[in-house]
UniProtKB/TrEMBL annotation:
SMART domains: ANK. Transmembrane segments: none annotated. ANK repeats lie at residues 66-98. It holds the Pfam family Ank_4. Keywords: ANK repeat, Repeat. PROSITE patterns: ANK_REP_REGION, ANK_REPEAT. This is ORF5 protein. It comes from Anabaena sp. InterPro entries: Ankyrin_rpt (IPR002110), Ankyrin_rpt-contain_sf (IPR036770).
Amino acid sequence: MAIVALMKATREGVDAVVKELIDLGVDQARNNDNNNALWFACFGNHYDLIHLLLAAKINIDNQNDNGATVLMYAASAGKTEVVKLLLQYHPNLYLRNLDDFQAIDFASNVEVLRLLKNATK
């Protein structure tokens, strides 16, 4: 039940509930697709929650059932600000999904491509 609550609170951007659930130790929970709460924070552009989850040491490199990471998702969705934020926490840029693609392969705009190229230098 706590897993469902964490995912729902993160998706809806309810900071206080997410913080309380993290304090209870459910921050490493994953849903049926193997996505962790960070995925939902990135999906919803909840920047404060992204920081909160990463400060709680949620796995930034968690790979879902397709091998995708939040960085791959953010790059493919053109979420430039989310990509910038994630890069501050030094994700593994070289992880590959099940189709053998890395985050840089998913860059959907020039700014995301530039950010990921510069991060690999």
